[in-house]
Amino acid sequence: MEVGVAQGGVVLLVGAGDAIGAAVARRFARGGYKVCVARREAVKSQGLVDEMKAEGCEVHAISVDARQEADVQAMFARIEKEIGPIEVCLFNAGSNVNKPLLETTEKLFFKAWELACYGGFLVGREAAKYMMQRERGTILFTGATASVRGGKGFAAFASAKFALRAVAQSMARELGPKNIHVVHLLIDAAVDSEAIHQRMKAAKGIDASDIPADSLTKTDSIADAYWFAHQQKRDGWTHELDLRPSVETW
């Protein structure tokens, strides 16, 4: 157990995939937290659950559609009743799509916003409801380069991430005085994950072994950044933190 962590506290990770979500789950479990990993199909987290339970961690996999208000509310109520108080909540769901403007349909544009922004609003609002009762908590949002810069082909994705950043900023200003720390982590980098390796292989024929060391941001580094922000004293809170490898052009 690391210093400063309340016994029995829960970290809830929504949109917890096999990269960032899994790394954050492991990091907070090492800090003494019960872990709830939530994604649309909980069965996809079974490997992570088995791994962490074998190491003695308490971890639960939950199915949720973050775009559905009733689903989100039911998930929070169940965790609070059956597992413990949610001390930390991460919204990590993404909608990274790259399409030329004229190929960006109304449906695609709406779905990107619905998951990346609206889902974040629902999850953040519900977390705040419980945290305000206890007058403490940390709410984390995963951002991207697209949160501050709209690139070619990213009209849908960037608009959704810009909007999520605005939600997080508004929440931080309202909830900070109530002792709830809201953090937006801007990941201005390609994340060192299996998905990125496959994408590079398909686009450029680059194998993972050919990628220069430290040119991608490792998921453990992202998890450490979230842990650092969560552990900050309230007289020196960070709302937005940008993260990139040293070789990244910015």
Give me a quick take on this structure.
The protein is α/β, with parallel strands linked by helices and 250 residues long. It is built from 7 helices and 9 strands, in the order E-H-E-H-E-H-E-H-E-H-E-E-H-E-H-E.
Number of strands: 9
Query: Which structural class do the helices and strands define?
Result: alpha/beta
**Going by CATH, what is the homologous superfamily?**
NAD(P)-binding Rossmann-like Domain
Low-confidence stretches: 1-6
CATH topology: Rossmann fold
Indicate the overall shape: globular
Query: What share of the residues does DSSP label as strand, in percent?
Result: 15-25%
- Largest pleated sheet: 7 strands, parallel
Protein name: SDR family NAD(P)-dependent oxidoreductase
InterPro entries: NAD(P)-bd_dom_sf, SDR_fam
Organism: Afipia massiliensis
Pfam families: adh_short
